Amino acid sequence: MELNQNKEMLTSYRERAWELVRQMTLEEKVAQTLHRSPAIERLGIKAYNWWNEALHGVARAGTATVFPQAIGMAATFDEDLMEKVGDAVSTEARAKFNMQQAGKDTDIYKGLTFWAPNVNIFRDPRWGRGQETFGEDPYLSGRLGVRYIEGLQGHDENYLKTAACAKHMAVHSGPEEVRHEFDACVSEQDLRETYLPAFEACVKEAKVEAVMGAYNRLDGVPCCGNRRLLIDILREEWGFEGHVVSDCGALDDFHLRHHVTSTPADTAAMAMNNGCDLNCGKTFAFLVQAAREGLVDEARIDEAVVNLFTARMKLGVFDQKGDNPYDNIPFRVVDSREMQELNEEVARRSVVLLKNENHILPLDKSRIKTIGVIGPNANNRRALVGNYEGTSARYITVLEGIQDYVGDSVRVLYSEGGHLYKDRTTRLAQANDRAAEVRQVCSESDIVIAVMGLDASVEGEQGDAGNEYGSGDKPDLNLPGVQQELLEIAKDSGKPMILILLSGGAHAVTWADTHLDAVLQGWYPGARGGRAIAQLLFGDAVPEGKLPVTFYRTTEELPAFEDYAMAGRTYRYMQQEALYPFGYGLSYTEFAYRGTQLLTGETLTADGVDFCTTVKNVGAVDATETVQVYVRAAHSNMPHGQLRHIVKLPLKAGEERTVTIHLSPDAFTLYNEKGEKTLQKGRCVIYVGGMQPDPRSAQLTGKTVETLEIEIG
Question: Which of 89, 253, 397, 648 could serve as a FRET partner for 665 with CA atoms 20 to 30 Å apart?
């Protein structure tokens, strides 16, 4: 009944949109295909700016809750939490929109069309924008993307809460420096097995309203004018009914950098004819010329504008105020105490404990008189928020979080230690000019906490991260500047040492893994991340994050950055041993698995397979286990299989629970060299545990995963 009602509403919206379009001139219609769409007063159409961002909170439009960066939220492995965050973001978005509309503010970043989530695959750890993604695994990216979209768009029968956008389709993950002229060439198998599944899930399951094209070419054709991507696959194969938007300035690249067209009019026609409806930029202004020269049919422009008006009608912005349930959300919900509490919860759950030698963590502050906190990220607000961020009413750095937590009972000594990526803090100083201070802080402390890594000034999108590193990408996986030297100086003090990494991806911290007592990956943990990290350090919360990316040992073991073939990349295809594997993360407790058994026989049925496993928290603290299910077929080229299911399982100390898991036949399919999804006969292994089934994970945890075998007849 609900499905039929939704279809009726969509039909009604499209009919209303057509009524408007039929009354418009060519010039008026073309103007509506630009992201800064002007008002048409004679038709009662208000001005609207389509460009808005909500990667991890409402961005670039004043005060908002700044959640952990997307890669950090991915480390929670929690679909339900992602939808909860999406719902919180869209609640703030509506509150801000209502305020802005009352003030007649229709500027950029003031609409309800949010260009998030980014479901590109984080295939190479050097990519600066990898922080915006949900990691390297297509299944995890798809599940989290779907639920974030559902949180953003809501579940009202008639209206979208906000409109989400899956970006950037497709095969887009650096290098940033050449993204405007780069041609990504991939096999059909890699395209279907890695680069498209998350987009497909967002379209088919979440009914995402928009899809954004990528800057690069795919096999010679710019993605924002790629008929195969935007029409054959997106609309005809997947049944997409929303609108397609170009990345910002991407259409100019057709003639200026890709050199596939000669003029802006040719470019506008190519993009419009091949499925792009909305131009973030100004190139579509040439559609008037293109239509008059016969390069594009005006009927296609009509279709694009209908798609765009339909989206605005789904949001209720063409209706009277009060017609949809979101018009009365008050501004006071923005950055409210409830939002702050959720923000801190997400931050706590995103941190990954990578090493905890002799259970040095959690710390007991009653046994500590002085804590030394060092490092360029210890008191760095930028290292909390990543990119595409909003403005928080308060920021709590790691240093501030520790100071607030211990109060006056413990002395906290602090040294910045050095610049984030330069060899000195000021131009006139000598290299490593804070080394002496670091030595003294460490010598007078009972324990040393080093906070290192990156921030969005050096890691991110080309143009935003304007640095000497290469347009936002990392030249290698080492800690930059003098950070490694500072760690070694601190270690020489002989004091216990904890390393906290704040960054948007993996670092090759092999020395730290060997020499330091504890290592945590905190990502960019959000505006209140310092409080969350302090709570974890002192045991008020238990780490539960799992790595959504592989931590490699060196950059040298990676394929070339420009090579988009998946061979040798990510946990699914790499042959070498990882430093810290995908899916890995320690806790302050231990979990034991037993009784894992098939419930539907040893042969795959048409309905799939059911099995159960019993998990017990055998430690002394309440905690949450992340049950991970991997599947590997005998004929697969993936050494350890691939993630196919996740269960978040909260367990009190000593508690034991049995969970039943269903895998559909789709979980056992693979793509062949032609890009065809196949279910081949043979043996498959199902792995069940709190990590992936690789030797390095077993070495790090001292555990093995449960295994089941099933035949595909």
Answer: 648
- The residues, ordered by sequence, that sit 6+ positions from 509 with a Cβ below 8 Å of its Cβ are 479, 499, 501, 519, 551, 579
Q: What CA–CA distances, in Å, run from 136 to 141, 185, 193, 418?
A: 8, 19, 12, 32
- Please state, for a pLDDT cut of 70, what percent of the chain lies above it: 98
Predicted confidence at residue 323, as pLDDT, reads 87
Mean pLDDT, rounded, for 643-660: 98
Catalytic, out of 459, 461, 473, 517: 459
Spatial neighbors of 219 by CB under 8 A, at least 6 apart, are 183, 184, 185, 186
Instruction: Copy the structure tokens of residue 317.
Output: 């912005």
CATH topology assigned to domain 2-324: TIM Barrel (3.20.20)
Query: What is the reported pLDDT for 11?
Result: 76
Q: What does the pLDDT read at residue 5?
A: 55
Residues near 523 by beta carbon (within 8 Å), at least 6 away in sequence = 68, 69, 71, 72, 75, 131, 350, 351, 386, 502, 503, 504
Three-state secondary structure call for residue 250: helix
Burial class of residue 358 in the structure, from the number of CB atoms within 10 Å of its CB (0-12 exposed, 13-18 middle, 19+ buried):
exposed
Does residue 183 contact residue 219 with C-beta atoms inside 8 Å? yes
Interhelix angle 138-153/197-204, nearest 10 degrees: 30
Architecture of domain 337-549: 3-Layer(aba) Sandwich (3.40)
- Residues 599-630: tens digit of each pLDDT: 999 999 999 999 999 999 999 999 999 999 99
DSSP 8-state code for residue 462: T
Question: Which positions ≥6 away from 341 have C-beta within 8 Å?
Answer: none
Does the active-site annotation cover 124? no
Across the strands, what pairs with 593?
A: 615
Is 676 among the catalytic positions? no
| Encoded amino acid at 38, one letter | P
Q: Which two tokens stand for residue 695?
A: 């030797």
Can you tell me the distance from the alpha carbon of 138 to that of 26, in angstroms, rounded to the nearest whole number?
Answer: 41
* Distance between CA atoms of residues 80 and 523, nearest Å: 20
What architecture is the 591-712 domain classified under in CATH?
Sandwich (2.60)
Domain limits of the chain? 2-324, 337-549, 591-712
Note if the bond before 559 is cis, omega within 30 degrees.
no
Residues contacting residue 687 through CB under 8 Å, at least 6 positions apart: 629, 630, 631, 632, 641, 693, 705, 706, 707
Q: Is the separation of the CB atoms in 301 and 25 below 8 Å?
A: no
Q: What tokens does 67 get?
A: 């959640």
Catalytic residue among 136, 150, 247, 416: 247
The pLDDT tens digits for 435-465 are 999 999 999 999 999 999 999 999 999 877 6
